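User: quick one, fold this
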Amino acid sequence: MQPEVHAFFDEATNTASYVVRDPNGSSCAIIDSVLDFDYASGRTDTRSADEVIAFVKDKGWSVDWLLETHVHADHLSAAPYLQDALGGKIGIGSAITTVQEQFGKVFNEGTAFQRDGSQFDQLFKEGDSFHIGQLRGDVLHTPGHTPACMTYVIGDAAFVGDTLFMPDFGTARCDFPGGSAGDLYDSIQKILALPDETRIFVCHDYKAPGRDEFAWETSVAAEKAGNVHIGGGVTREAFVALREGRDATLGMPKLIIPSLQVNMRAGNMPEPDDSGKVFLKVPVDGL
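Assistant:
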């Protein structure tokens, strides 16, 4: 089946979020939503999420799932806000527990922070499936960028998170805690083993040099033939050398500190203190 896919692009974080509908009904899923956040002021805004909410309500659709491809380091998830407005279950990969353990230590969260994934409604493992109405989705565990990265294959469409970018931009970085360029290579091979005509929807686009427009849809065939990091049959050894060399030149994403703390909690803020105020921590020399 070919799901109906609608993209919402947030230029502030270069993030593509998706509404994916069962073509034979009104059920849909929302993938990789965005909560707007101004780091300088510490203020949140829901304009990006509100655009998605208005779209879904205008269509008269019902939300079955709010899916996260991974714990994002470059934007905050709006999943709880969307859930309050539209319903649906929040799902992520079961290796979220590894990510929670790693970053629970980085942010000195203590024992109050649960590291069992219980903040999410569903923890997916390799080979799991789910349904959006009558439309089946299958789950691939595709670690490398993070240990918990998942690819959701829904009909003829694959939502790959940060694992792959557009062919002219390449692949995800692997230098965060728990990342692995070798694992990423192996994960990408799983995606490229899908049928050539499979549509690939990426989570971010940064406009490669020479391209004027943002883009977020490609295909397995296009990635195999022309991805500047992995296309044309690049060997695992060559890819690992390229990826690790490139990662050594990259700075941290500007929203990594708030994003990790919120997203490892399924998009929820840390618990307020006794006065009712919410705080995010900055680990000095911790990342």
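User: anything notable?
Assistant: The chain has one domain: 4-259.
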